[in-house]
């Protein structure tokens, strides 16, 4: 039976047979596949670059997800706003759930949740207009863009209901502690720290330290350690980022609970509504949206 690679090669020869006559290497010196790959590279087009990488074993396409990475992200193909606009209008674009514009289609908070308009490029760049006003996009910074965070970050603890209240005594306790400066005082030791080891403290049977009790991932997700003041204030990815020469990612910003991931994760649901906590956060469309933001989030 003919292999997929051989079949691709035969199709390529039928379409671009003149490439075989290009004087890259002699027929006696190189296999015909490598001759075509080298000649293809000299043409400079994306198609020929892709062909060269396939033939030389530098590109392996196994499924839709890897295809997006290999063909678009690695190929540096610009992601246009037209595609982003399509994503915002398409159900299940980022995982099972309604299209984004069903809930976010106006900057009027009386018509659209948070006054967020995802139906136009200008609306996306404007962000939420309901207090507290927050941008949805930080051009050039996908990981700092709230629209990406909302698509990727699960509400904590895992399994808590989408409609669970966000103003409980325990959640407000975390908020007030951070806004007061996040100090290692008696309030922290006697009231705040025990919450992380208490099941049902934040609406789930799972205690926070069941998943976040070490600086290493695994066993502790994102290297978040909620067993001590030092661990909480060190933040996420302290071990892995240290190997890369990067600082940890803070999860507590003293005096600013609204922008502290520790508090955000207790009150903000992952989008779209209905997506399960086990659904992967690295959906290919999310990566394409991130690339658009990385490229500058241009409205063109």
Automatic annotation (TrEMBL):
The record's keywords, sorted A to Z, are:
Signal
Check the UniProt entry and state the signal peptide residues, or none.
1-26
Protein name per its UniProtKB record: Planctomycete cytochrome C
């Amino acid at each position: 039976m003919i292999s997929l690679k051989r079949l691709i090669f035969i199709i390529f020869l039928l379409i671009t047979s003149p490439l075989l006559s290009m004087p890259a290497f002699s027929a006696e010196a190189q296999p015909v596949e490598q001759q075509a790959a080298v000649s293809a590279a000299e043409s400079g087009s994306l198609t020929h670059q892709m062909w060269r990488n396939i033939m030389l074993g530098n590109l392996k396409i196994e499924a839709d997800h890897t295809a997006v990475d290999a063909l678009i992200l690695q190929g540096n193909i610009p992601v246009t706003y037209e595609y982003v606009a399509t994503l915002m209008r398409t159900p299940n674009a980022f995982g099972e759930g309604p299209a984004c514009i069903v809930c976010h289609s106006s900057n009027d908070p009386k018509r659209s949740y948070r006054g967020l308009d995802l139906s136009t490029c200008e609306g996306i760049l404007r962000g939420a207009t309901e207090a507290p006003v927050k941008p949805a996009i930080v051009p050039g910074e996908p990981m700092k863009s709230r629209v990406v965070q909302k698509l990727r970050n699960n509400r904590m603890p895992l399994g808590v209901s989408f409609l669970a209240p966000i103003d409980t005594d325990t959640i407000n306790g975390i908020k007030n502690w951070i806004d007061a400066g996040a100090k290692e005082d008696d309030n922290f030791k006697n009231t705040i720290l025990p919450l992380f080891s208490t099941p049902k403290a934040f609406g789930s049977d799972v205690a926070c330290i069941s998943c976040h009790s070490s600086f290493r991932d695994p066993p502790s997700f994102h290297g978040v350690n909620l067993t001590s003041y030092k661990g909480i204030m060190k933040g996420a990815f302290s071990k892995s980022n240290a190997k890369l020469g990067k600082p940890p990612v803070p999860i507590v910003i003293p005096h600013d609970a609204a922008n502290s991931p520790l508090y955000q994760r207790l009150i903000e649901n992952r989008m779209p509504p209905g997506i399960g906590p086990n659904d992967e956060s690295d959906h290919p469309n999310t990566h394409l949206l991130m690339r658009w933001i990385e490229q500058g989030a241009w409205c063109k």
